[in-house]
Amino acid sequence: MHTTDFDYPLPPELIAQHPAAQRDQSRLLVLHRTTGQTAHRHFRDLPDYLQAGDVLVLNNSKVIPARLRGNNCQTGGAFEMLLLEENAPNDWWAMMRPGRRAQVGTEIAVKDRAGVLTGIRARVLATNAEGHRRLQFSGTNDLKGDLAGLGEVPLPPYIERPAPNLDPQDNDRYQTVYAQADGSVAAPTAGLHFTEELLQRVQALGVEVRFVTLHVGLGTFAPVKVETLSEHQMHEEHFTIEDPAVQALNQARQAGRRIVAVGTTTVRVLESVAAAHDGKLVAGAGRTRIFIYPPYTFRMVDALVTNFHLPCSTLLMLVSAFAAPGAETGRDLSLRTYAEAVREKYRFFSYGDAMFIAGR
Asked: What separation in angstroms does the CA of 285 have from each of 58, 96, 191, 238, 303?
């Protein structure tokens, strides 16, 4: 399949710039993949599509304030740094803007959230094939611990905010209510619709709620730059799955109960581990670069909660694979459903509305 097979027209006004007034007031488009039928609901109605014995799996990774600003120590020129991954304390890979001015050896004086220069500096150590910079930070014992006072919420570029972004709403709403493990540089957005009350309602139905961790990084949101999907290489992302989740999920699979994944990142954890262990899960931590696109046979996931994704993105490709497991027809079904969402004026992308794809 080709990257352009997953393109679709989207009016710019449907790109959500702000979250719904309340998390669970988002709209929910329900797709029954076996029949192609759809229903239009609200996210608070999700329990209507769950049943006792289901296991609902969520990604509990927490977004860090990964966007930093600073000035070239020699020229005073402004830099924006998006931290991508920590190699060791004070040692990070980052995307930089303007990248062409961030040559090896460049030193940058880091500002705090108020725009005041601090005693922290970043030195460019290396550049990789993707154009990212390896930064060594000084003037701090551990940059990660100082990010709360330095960094901004790393909203994606299609959400427009003044720079620097100090909107307190984003600090709260670009984070799930169950986030625990620091490490993501983008939110696992399907989970943004859940409230604590909604999770309690789900559990009251007899649905088990379990967590995995995948720190969302470049692998999730990097664009596909090749024409043929088989040539695309995903960036690695770190995940952890602990024993309580493993036991619950393996038991559910053995008993024929449904596993409902919240978000494409959760799917990638479950399918990565299952693929490596003959369809079963084992506890542990690792790194994944799994790229799911049609046709793909899913080993662990029976239903999916997801947002509406960018054209030609790996996320839309995964959703298309899930819409028709083991076949290529899921692309057409997904794009027809997206066209319906456009006609019905659903809100798209990170702060937008949600889909529930029911497999059985």
From this structure: 16, 29, 21, 7, 24
Task: Give the pLDDT band of residue 130 (cuts 50, 70, 90).
Answer: confident
Give the predicted TM-score (pTM) of the model: 0.95
In this structure, are residues 349 and 310 in contact, taking their beta carbons and an 8 Å threshold?
yes
Given CATH 3.40.50.2300, say whether it is the number of domain 67-151: no
Q: What pLDDT score does 219 carry?
A: 67
Cα–Cα nearest to 212, from 269, 275, 251, 277: 269
Domain 3-63+173-358, second-level architecture: 3-Layer(aba) Sandwich (3.40)
Task: Indicate the helix (H) or strand (E) that contains 284.
Answer: strand 284-288
The CA distance from 147 to 160, in Å, is 22
Q: Is 52 in contact with 207 (CB distance < 8 Å)?
A: yes
CB 190, CB 354: distance < 8 Å? yes
Contact 21, 352 (CB under 8 A): no
Residues 264-277 pLDDT 10s: 999 999 999 999 99
Place of tokens 């759809």: 38
